[in-house]
Amino acid sequence: MSANLMSRTPSTATPTWHQFERKVDEVKPSKTDINYLVMDYLITNGYPSAAKKFAVEANIQLRTDLDSIQERVEIRTAIHSGNIRLAIEKINELNPQILDENQSLHFSLLRLQLIELIRVCTSTPDGDISPALEFATSQLAPRAPTNPQFLEDLERTLALLIFPSDNLAPGLASLLDPSLRKEIATRVNEAILESQGARKEARLRGLVKLRAYAENKAREAKKDIPEKLDIGLISETHDSNRNTTSSNGAGNRANDTVMANNGDVDPMIS
Fold first, then answer.
1. Where are the beta strands (DSSP E) in the chain?
2. How far is CA 140 from the centre of its chain?
3. Domain CTLH, which positions (predicted)?
4. CB-count exposure of residue 128 (10 Å: 0-12, 13-18, 19+)
């Protein structure tokens, strides 16, 4: 990824270039630093094929075991597809302490498994709800009294058995939305990384959050900055910039999209 992806260029600026934009343009991050940021992102968020390709083209040493990334890919793929039982099995094979020491995450996974059982039994008229009830009784009910939030979440989930799935209140409909799988999958990925002594979040995401925070504080303080500030990660007008991004490995993620939200390409590297 070339350095000009991280800063604005005069060709994309407004006719009157703000003083702030000139100062930003004077900052020239090194290509090496940018490449390591991209590599860190690909590894942390689980894009093994793209990471391998990027390491070759950017001449970076891949300092991680691709198998360990693939393990996270398989777990998150299982969650995204609704196969929570398989995901839990793979997590325990990888490191049983992850769920033993994080009861909230374990309960969230079991609750998601219950939701998938409810989804199946309510998808057809007169569906058998006994598998969902049995699972709730054996796996979730014993845990619910240990935490008020667990009990509330279980009660709300069981309400899915009472109301028709095509006419649910927003609070219940959200339980069946694929975004819940995404949320739990992200938490699982972070827990695995933390158990391996790695950062839970890629540096690039941290920088984006820091940049947004700094902009908000500057606006609150009435600082003289442009009305609109582009994030500056991707040029929307220069084909050459898009080609650079693709050649550096982002275009080689066809086999990695299972890690993205609901099967879509992660917007951070699209």
1. none
2. 26
3. 68-125
4. exposed
Q: Does residue 261 surpass a pLDDT of 70? A: no
Position 128 pLDDT exceeds 50: yes
Distances (CA, A) of 158 to 81, 152, 163, 164: 21, 10, 10, 12
User: Mean pLDDT score of the chain, rounded to an integer?
Assistant: 79
Report the distance separating Cα 238 and Cα 5, nearest Å: 10
**Joined tokens for residue 145:** 């009294």
In the block, which residue shows the tokens 């604005």? 8
pLDDT of residue 182: 95
> What's the CA gap between 79 and 85, in Å, rounded?
9
What percentage of the chain reaches a pLDDT higher than 70?
A: 79
C-alpha torsion sign, points 95, 97, 100, 101: negative
By the 8 A CB rule, do 53 and 249 touch? yes
Q: Is 239 helix (H, G, I), strand (E, B) or coil?
A: helix
Cα 269 off chain centre by: 12
The amino acid present at 198, given as its one-letter code, is A
Residue 115's pLDDT is what? 97
